[in-house]
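JOB MANIFEST
job_type = single_chain_structure
chain_count = 1
residues = 164
[input]
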Amino acid sequence: MHKVLLSVLLGFVLIFAGGSAFAFNSGAVEVGDWETGSIVGQPFKHLNVDLEFIALKVGGHPAWYPPTSILNLRNAGTGGARAGQPIVFKVTNSLDKPHAFTLSADSPFAAPSSMQVNVILKPGETKYIGISMSHFTYVTASGSLKYVCSLHKGHLTGQLLVPK
């Protein structure tokens, strides 16, 4: 009798754990414009922009500026005051050719389910990237993400640091 009860209880735990893993990944990253874009039901225009990235030329080479960004999610930083609000990045292509903004935890130790955002921007175009706080803190276990243009080999890379 105890084995049957334990088996049923374990079955419920596995079902609920599987369901929460699905909910955790749903809607984790959204790309859109300022007026119509949203992340986890919150419009971009009602959220603060955490970081801005601009494609421009540095020393004759295309690059995402700034080359290093810091997003402080510790209690003394934005994490304590944001109460689980999503992260929002503004990405602008100021160059005369299309460029991609690719953000990933690209490392030898990155998990297979690691976040990878890839947005292709036309010349002069601006997009907003919303990332749910739970998803963002999950994929930044190393505290470092890289951003690069995946369309061009000569594009300089950048690094996003997330102190914990």
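[summary]
DSSP finds three helices and twelve strands in the chain.
Residues 2-25 form the longest helix (24 residues).
exit_status = 0
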